[in-house]
Design a protein that fits this description.
single chain; 5 strands; 4 helices; alpha+beta; globular; five-stranded antiparallel beta sheet
Length: 169
Amino acid sequence: MAIMSSRLIRHEVCKEALEEVGAKVIDVQGIMFHVSFQLKEHEIAYIYHLNPDNTFLLERVKPYFLQIGTYKKEENIVNAIKIDIEQFRNAMRSSNFKDFIRVDDHLSKLVRVFEDLYLYYNVNKEQIDELDTILHDVLDRIRKMTKECDRIYYKKDPDVLSTDLKFDD
């Protein structure tokens, strides 16, 4: 008779909960998990894995990359994914959805482009400061949009976006 650890039993329960809401779950050696949903023509996919300290790191990998967070319990990952999928279903109703995805993809690529810039080139302080000023301007514009646009999701508050958000200096 096989004996299952409580973590493994909880994992199976969480896996079943994700499958019940339409996810396809691929278990990679019991330490990394790929969860995907097909919402109309868009795949929404996540990867989460068990860290050495027994926490879980959750990342969205499609339609664009985003590190979502670190969680102590796998059940919290299930809840985070359910909310994320609900928000995507809601956002997909917008006629601008494809544009949002395009802009988010551009932002994700910019992170990599910027990393290549400082890893491969000797960029001077003035040039770095110029880029930082532009990023602050973008953040100011996003904050302004939160005041100009109607909020459409109220089941939870944004994880990062707030009107007093500032970049650390």
